[in-house]
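Researcher: Let's do a round of design. I'm pasting the structure tokens now; please hold your answer until I've finished.
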């Protein structure tokens, strides 16, 4: 009696592997069906999708726009040509309304690129506003506060841009940690402040920009952007920063993060 029960149980368990095998086969089949469905791509729809972003600033890195299917009539082609410019203008309007300084950042960046000044001026978006970082070698000789001739040409180019911006402008001088001790500049405080004042006076007195928009500040060596442990890093710290600061009519900062 016991032997018959054992044989019956053995027959029952010997068939259980079929369930696992069937599940595995089903999963493998499903996997290959998914792979096939992924490989069959509607090329026309994909090209239309990519082309819809061309010209709107999202996929402008594409050197050649992808080919679009031919429209049925010329009347249907006109709206598609006007759509990118309309969406782009709406995008810029939304940026201007939500964060005016972000629009200023792109304006300054475009200006520097078109003017060929991006190698001399670095633009950054910071908490206080838009920073135009100019290295010492572009504006001044080492240990001096007299503008170079090429520095005047650079400031002449920037003046037209700054004059149109409805924001306060702070010109800030920075030095490295090497001490200076001359009759004209006893410390780096005098050097950094004199340089920022010289830039402000050139903008306002020589070029005629509104002096109410400008302020001059010297930070000496105490706001470095890099450690002063190598000559190359010290050169990065010797700079003049033109900071575009957004303020409301009451003088309060209105920069939106």
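Researcher: That's everything. Go ahead.
Model: Designed sequence:
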């Amino acid at each position: 009696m016991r032997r018959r029960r054992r044989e019956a149980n053995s027959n029952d368990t010997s068939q259980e592997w079929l369930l696992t095998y069937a599940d595995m086969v089903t999963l493998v089949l499903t996997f290959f069906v998914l792979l096939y469905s992924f490989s069959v791509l509607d090329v026309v729809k994909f090209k239309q999708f990519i082309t819809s972003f061309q010209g709107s600033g999202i996929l402008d890195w594409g050197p050649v726009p992808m080919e679009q299917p031919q429209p049925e009539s010329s009347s249907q082609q006109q709206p598609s040509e006007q759509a990118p410019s309309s969406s782009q203008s709406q995008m810029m309007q939304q940026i201007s309304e939500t964060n005016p300084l972000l629009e200023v950042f792109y304006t300054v960046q475009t200006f520097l690129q078109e003017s060929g000044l991006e190698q001399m001026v670095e633009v950054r978006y910071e908490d206080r506003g838009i920073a135009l970082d100019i290295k010492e070698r572009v504006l001044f000789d080492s240990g001096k506060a007299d503008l170079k001739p090429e520095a005047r040409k650079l400031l002449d180019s920037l003046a037209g841009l700054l004059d149109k911006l409805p924001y306060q402008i702070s010109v800030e001088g920075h030095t490295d940690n090497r001490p200076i001790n001359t009759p004209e500049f006893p410390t780096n405080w005098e050097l950094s402040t004199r340089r920022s004042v010289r830039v402000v006076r050139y903008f306002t007195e020589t070029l005629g920009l509104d002096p109410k928009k400008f302020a001059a500040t010297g930070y000496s060596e105490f706001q470095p952007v890099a450690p002063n442990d190598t000559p190359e890093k010290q050169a990065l710290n010797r700079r003049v920063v033109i900071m575009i600061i957004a303020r409301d009519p009451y003088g309060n900062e209105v920069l939106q993060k």
